[in-house]
Amino acid sequence: MLTPNNRGLAYGDGFFTTMAVIEGTILWLDYHQQRLISHSQALQLDIDSDELLLDLQAQAQQLQQGMLKLIITRAEQALRGYGFKTSESGSACEIWLKATPITEVIAEQLSLPDGRSLLLQPMTQACCLASQLACLPPTLAGLKSLNRLDNVLASGELQSINAELDSAYKSYGEGLLRDMSGAWVEGTMSNVFYQLNDTVYSKSTLSLKANTVNNSEPLNYLTKSQWYTPSMSQSGVAGVMRQVLIDSLAVTTKPVIIRPLTDNDLPQLSQLFFCNAVRGVMPVSALTLLSGEIVSF
Fold first, then answer.
1. Going by DSSP bridges, is the β-strand pair 117-120/108-111 parallel, antiparallel, or unpaired?
2. What is the pLDDT of residue 221?
3. pTM of the predicted model, to two decimals?
4. Rg (Cα) of the chain, in Å, rounded?
């Protein structure tokens, strides 16, 4: 039972990962295990990732289709306040799991160079948000920790913007966030990849219907030109899907380049998509800047 002494509740002392489940299988399970290992080391938590993954796979079989959200917190400590004691293997943990069934039909997939495929969402519009992400020390930057208030406030801003729009005309599926240094880093719930005009190519190759697994040229969207993604070295979450894409394109002639996304870059964007482990790739058709200017793709 959750009490006020739970360190996740009291201090955000822990992390989480959210997994998509399709036909009883957890997508990108190896990458989620990498997160369990890296985060447990960074936060000095004692986690048996192999045993935990067996439990997750059993839950996925029972769920069949939906989402599993795993939350891990440091166990209650005898020490007062923030302090904690740890052994060589780390502090003991409390583990929470939430299973959410989803019955939506997945209409499209996007092929990767190694033959695996990603979930592909319909085109959406996005906007730049005034909310900002905190800049963090290197020990915390990129972690999917329980300290997500900046994302909470940014998501609230996006919902407020959408509430003021004529939903019959448009709504924004995601918002682009900058950190306190002014660099644009990620979405409210996703990482971002982008292309610039100096690498633009014929938009006829970008039809989503031309990028499904069964097409004779399934890799155009990801491999025809140069993709960039911002660094997670001082803010943001180094997402599972972000790493999948970086690793997959690393073996092609155009590996992803880690590069800041600045105010000056925004009018020069030629393509943009958001991504996360549950939704896959979320292509953007237009980005509304803070000035009100719209960059269409």
1. antiparallel
2. 77
3. 0.90
4. 20
